Amino acid sequence: MTPFPTFDDGKEPDALRTIGEVAKALGLKQHVLRYWEEQFPMLKPLTRAGGRRYYRAEDIALLARIDQLLHREGYTIRGARLALAGKGEAPIAAAPAPAAPAPNSAMPEEAEIISALRILRRHLETIRGRLATALED
Q1: Distance of alpha carbon 29 from its chain centroid, rounded?
Q2: Letter string b/e over residues 25-35, b meaning 16 or more CB atoms within 10 A of that residue's CB
Q3: Which residues pair with 6 in a beta bridge?
Q4: What is the DSSP letter of 50?
């Protein structure tokens, strides 16, 4: 697990921290922390006037865990969200490969998707042909 970041600012360990202080301590950009707030509903820093964020010690510990899951253990955001919720999805790298479907056993939804992709491919080939013709002129 990622060690709890240390702050050398003279504040108490349980003091509220700004997004800049937390981002610097974790080695992340501020926009990453804001994005994680959207992706991880359990992450709720205090917000003050003007939308200023203040992170509590438990928020910082959660951010450190999210960083560990995403950047060191190879989880996807969805997988990390499930792991934090206690549903424990394995990292994407460790997930077993899905079994190959039997021939002609495509689900109705898959058949529709395949059909749509074939139509799209024909349209794209037509567009490519028109562009090639236009470039030759």
Answers
A1: 14
A2: bbebeeeebee
A3: none
A4: G
> What tokens does 7 get?
């702050």
Residue-by-residue DSSP string for 54-103:
EE-HHHHHHHHHHHIIIIIS---HHHHHHHHTT--PPPGGGSPPPPPPPT
Query: Count of residues for the chain?
Result: 137
| CA of residue 70 relative to chain centroid, distance | 8
Evaluate the CA torsion angle 89, 90, 91, 97 in order and state its sign. Answer: negative
Question: For 19-76, how does the pLDDT look when each residue is reduced to its tens digit (9 = 90+)?
Answer: 999 999 999 999 999 999 999 999 999 998 888 999 999 999 999 999 999 999 999 9
DSSP symbol at 49: G
**Type of residue numbered 32:** V
pTM for this prediction: 0.60
Nearest to residue 28, comparing CAs of 61, 59, 76, 63? 63
Q: From the CB of residue 2, how many other CB atoms can be counted at a distance below 10 Å?
A: 16
